[in-house]
Design brief:
Elements: H1 2-7, H2 10-16, E1 17-18, E2 29-30, H3 41-48, E3 57-59, E4 62-68, E5 74-78, E6 87-88, E7 90-95, E8 101-111, E9 118-125, E10 128-130, E11 138-141, E12 146-152, E13 162-163, E14 167-173, E15 180-184, E16 194-195, E17 197-200, E18 203-209, E19 213-221, E20 224-226, E21 234-236, E22 242-248
Antiparallel strand pairs: 1-2, 3-4, 4-8, 5-6, 5-9, 7-8, 9-10, 9-12, 11-12, 13-14, 14-18, 15-16, 15-19, 17-18, 19-20, 19-22, 21-22
């Protein structure tokens, strides 16, 4: 495992590691060999934007934690899980033109749980529980004798289709195990081009880069089409179907 982590590049991380989004906690778990998972667009942006080790910070609906290289394993545990789960940091490497590693750091990205505006957490470095050395905000509980790191967050987490700076992040929620597809004026209403990914049970998403314009779209389950329930803007197609509208500026 140590050898695997050492040679793991960021591109491999993004293609082959699956975050456990259930309960709002991405983890460094590997995908099964016969399964391909695509990270949500905002998550990938957060990873790409990491430039070095820093204090934890919020980016959209994610909290980014970083750590210096050196330890064999770094983990993190949160108060909203009663510190019962340890989530492993992943490695981000910088390589030269000959694919030789010239620098690296460790990171963990938390999808912000709903209705949380304050986080307490502890870092686990090679099995030793401690506070975050990159976060000066700490709290000592005299009753438990434990010191924890703390972080105030802004909870704008909304499970809804929304525009990004480069396109649209489509969201659908429903029963798990479905095959939900997307069609619209951007596909000439062909429903077989795009399929949403079920990133956690009953939660489906797809990022689609779209240029400026007004788009009409609908979701499909089999041959049945239906509008996006997270988007209140609606219209009717020429053949009498109810569709959703989104404007990209």
């Amino acid at each position: 495992m140590k050898y695997f982590v050492k040679i793991l590049s960021l591109s491999i991380i993004l293609l082959n590691l699956v975050p456990a989004f259930a309960k709002g906690k991405p983890q460094g778990k590997k995908n099964s060999p016969d399964t391909e998972f695509k990270y949500p667009y905002e998550y990938r942006v957060a990873v790409n934007d990491i430039r070095g080790v820093s204090s934890p910070y919020q980016q959209d609906d994610y909290i980014v934690f970083t750590a210096e290289k050196g330890p064999r394993h770094i983990g993190i545990a949160f108060d909203f899980e009663d510190y019962k789960e340890i989530h492993s940091f992943m490695k981000k490497s910088t390589k030269d033109i000959d694919e030789k590693e010239i620098d690296s750091l460790y990171f963990y990205i938390l999808e912000l749980p709903r209705d949380i505006e304050f986080i307490s957490y502890r870092i686990i470095i090679d099995g030793i529980w401690t506070t975050d050395p990159n976060n000066e905000n700490k709290y000592y509980n005299p009753y438990t004798g434990i010191e924890v790191s703390t972080l105030n967050v802004t909870n704008n987490h909304k499970n809804e289709t929304k525009k990004t700076d480069k396109g649209v992040h489509f969201i659908y929620q429903g029963p798990e195990g479905q095959k939900i597809r997307l069609a619209g004026t951007f596909t000439d209403w062909d429903p077989w081009i795009y399929e949403l990914t079920e990133t956690r049970p009953g939660y489906y998403e797809l990022y689609l880069p779209l240029p400026e314009g007004t788009y009409y779209y609908a979701f499909y389950n089999g041959t049945k089409s239906f509008p996006d329930t997270t988007n209140p803007d609606r219209a009717w197609s020429k053949d009498g179907r109810e569709t959703s509208i989104i404007v990209v500026k």
